[in-house]
Specification:
Layout (H helix, E strand, L loop, with lengths): L1 E5 L1 H4 L11 H11 L6 E5 L3 H10 L8 H31 L4 E3 L6 E4 L2 E5 L1 H9 L3 E5 L1 E5 L6 E4 L1 H11 L4 E6 L20 E2 L19 H15 L3 E5 L5 H6 L7 E3 L1
Helix pairs in contact: 3-4, 6-7
Bound molecules: adenosine-5'-diphosphate (ADP).
The site of adenosine-5'-diphosphate has 23 residues, from helix 1 and helix 7.
Length: 262
């Protein structure tokens, strides 16, 4: 079984001031994913469909008073509706390409405690897989069991780590809009070099707080999740979804330029 994440950076225009889909990328990526014909779970990021609302409403922040709670209720509703719309468009495109994609809204069967998933009905996901469907999950706004915050954003990166461990994935692939993990942000530092392998011993301080648009931690948040997964014994590969052919090669088990986290 393979779990593949399509990053919000590849699927949406992440720094746009309103939710904006990268239609060309979605069309191409959906076509490339159809190269795989075994058990597959797809997780996509929220990109501008999630981060704009999550940030505006401060979802995941401590709730200060009754009015703030009412504001956050509105924020959770708007975030969930927005990311669900993105998921709908992704699934529709995957279906067009012949993939039996079934959108599975994480907030309907997942909760967090202090922003970490503490409950998830993976049995349901397994059942869809066993019937031949391709479950498609995504970063979402969920109920959090910490009474001071009550709601949290879970990233697609946290979801893949959780599912990979719980459902014993054979391969985990993440795609974003860069070739992998670099010594520094490749978008701002032309001297940054691609790291072919990242382990707990790699010095990664340059990846902290880089992506201000991303409330779930950008590249740093991703690496943190994937190192936890590596500790558990599952390696993952980060590749560039913006480069045509990469997703097709990766899902077919062929070599692709990227970073292996182990
Ligand atoms: P996605 O939404 O696709 O999951 P993120 O936006 O969370 O991905 O993270 C990818 C972004 O992280 C890249 O676009 C890049 O600008 C930024 N970044 C910051 N530091 C690094 C680094 N050291 N190596 C690679 N990318 C980095």
């Amino acid at each position: 079984m393979i779990i593949i994440k399509i990053g919000g950076s590849a699927l949406t225009v992440k720094d746009a001031d309103k939710p904006t889909l990268d239609e060309d990328n979605l069309e191409r990526i959906a076509g490339e994913l159809s190269a795989y014909n075994d058990d597959m779970i797809i997780v996509h990021g929220a990109g501008s469909y999630g981060h704009i609302y999550a940030k505006k409403y401060g979802i995941g922040d401590v709730i200060s008073n009754v009015n703030d709670h009412l504001y956050k209720l509105e924020g959770v509703c708007r975030t969930q509706a927005s990311v669900q719309l993105l998921n709908y468009m992704v699934c529709e495109k995957l279906q067009e390409k012949g993939i039996p994609a079934i959108g599975m809204k994480p907030s309907a069967y997942m909760t967090t405690n202090n922003k970490r998933i503490d409950m998830c009905d993976t049995g349901l996901i397994r059942k869809y897989l066993d019937n031949g469907f391709v479950p498609v999950l995504y970063g979402d706004a969920v109920l959090d069991n910490n009474d001071y915050m009550k709601y949290a954003i879970i990233s697609g990166d946290q979801i893949i780590t959780y599912l990979a461990e719980d459902l014993h994935a054979d391969r985990v692939i993440l795609s974003s809009d860069v070739d992998g993990i670099y010594t520094d942000n490749p978008k701002t530092n032309p001297d940054a070099e691609l790291l072919e392998v990242v382990t707990r011993d790699t010095d990664l301080k340059t990846t902290e707080n880089e992506n201000q648009a991303d409330v779930t931690g950008g590249m740093y948040g991703k690496i943190r999740e994937l190192l936890d997964l590596a500790d558990y014994g599952i390696e993952s590969l980060i590749i560039n979804a913006d480069k045509p052919g990469n997703i097709r090669l990766a899902v077919s088990g062929q070599k692709v330029k990227g970073t292996l986290i182990k």
